[in-house]
Amino acid sequence: MNKKVYCTNNNCATEFDKINAGCLYLFNALFVDYNAFKDNSNNNIDVVYYIIIWLSYMLSLKKDNGINKLNDFYIDHIEKNTHYIKKIEGVREYKCYKKIIDQKKDLLDMNNNIISNFYKAFKSLCEMYSTFGGNTSNCKKISDKANQFFEEYNELNNYSDITKGSPYYKLLSTLSNDYDHLKNICKDAQGSNFPTLPEINTPKDTIKIPGEFSEQKFEQKSATNSAQNYDIRSSSSSIVSKLIPVVSIFVAISIFFGISYKYSLFGFRKRSQKHLRGKLKK
Q1: What's the pTM value of the predicted model, to 2 decimals?
Q2: Can you point out the beta strands (E) in the chain?
């Protein structure tokens, strides 16, 4: 893979340029044309939620970066970027990557630190699907990881400002749907033990959590309209399962584009770098 293709003017001069290049690579992997759109995303653009979680987490690792909301990054690196407004061949519903992002634009007004808090749960869910590998004999192996996801989900679910139809609600319910999908697949597998997730809390039954996370307020400009069209149980197939073919690349692209980050990211150690570089260069 020629990384310069994903860089503005063929040059990733800053850390933000590199992060943007990684983000663009993910969109190419999932939505570049009709076949990718059908095979990888199953015509379900909710997979964009996970790209946004990854993007938010990568930005959160850059302290004092001046980006408080994803909309800041969107304006600077996506809105007028020719890579994001290039036509997707064979797909009527979404003319370009920017149009796909615009369908989830309410997330862009959320505080970046809030979205990045979803990363741990997303990471656990990806690891569960990766270990599962489409084989129910592996269900027992991921029971411990299911318990870890359960704890991370509950931490997110205790946030005091969850409103049905809000961006936060959508992210949480997307994670919940994909967990439940795997839980249902493994329900009859020997030794499988997946805890049942509670319903998403509403303001009347949440508690105020001390600390920065609970104090953050996110804008809910389109919450009312979104709630009318959004059903937390609407997903009949797992979004994450479609993301698994490229999930290992989340770390690989960070290494390949030279984005500095903590080596604990996605649980890969330094010794994985050479293998991941080789995988991308093929």
Answers
A1: 0.75
A2: none
